[in-house]
Amino acid sequence: MTRIIAGAAGGTPLAAVPGSLTRPTTDRVKEALFSRLDAFDVLAGARVLDLYAGSGALGVESGSRGARSVDLVESDAKASAVCQRNADLINGVLGTKTVTVHRSKVEPFLDRAAAAAAWDVVFLDPPYPLEDGTLAAVLQKLAGHLGSGAVVVVERSSRSPEPGWPEGMTRFAEKKYGETRLWFAEPSVPDAISADDLPDVAEG
């Protein structure tokens, strides 16, 4: 059972997408990911974007941990309906509409985003069959919508190549957990998070 790990709604069960439409982030990877984000101190008051959201578990977890706003972007009808159920759940706990669901493909969503729209934490967990060139194009569109000090997290198969980072975005760390690899990137600006700031966590 998928659940919210910590924060205002910690321990609350989440609805899951039926069948094999999505590839949920395991609890082990999710806990490790959020321990790093906590170490970076980027979640409190953050504007969070969860692309290829699936059930919305990563975005909803962010809302529980103090994010100011969360946008869940998912194109599949069944998955977006689950996103909405989980968004309603966390919004009810928080007493405010922190999480918003957008039923849309990722690239059109970013194309429609206002020029001034900027996010502080972005999750991308695209389907494994997504072509590397398509992911690179999404990252290119995303690069213009990052706040100062933003953190971008790409979750892929450990057998997948490193994403093609666009101009204006730099990879600063990567961690492997069994069959999953997390890539961390940031805007290419001075005083951004350094790889030296990463906590020591054993790789699996």
UniProtKB/TrEMBL annotation:
Determine if rRNA-binding is one of this entry's keywords.
no
- UniProt keyword Methyltransferase, yes or no: yes
UniProt-listed Pfam families: Cons_hypoth95
Q: What is its EC number?
A: 2.1.1.171
CDD domains assigned: AdoMet_MTases
Keywords attached to this entry: Methyltransferase, Transferase
Domain of life, per the record?
A: Bacteria
Q: What GO molecular function annotation could you give as one example from this UniProt entry?
A: 16S rRNA (guanine(966)-N(2))-methyltransferase activity
Q: Which InterPro entries match?
A: RNA_MeTrfase_RsmD, SAM-dependent_MTases_sf
Q: This protein is called what?
A: 16S rRNA (Guanine966-N2)-methyltransferase
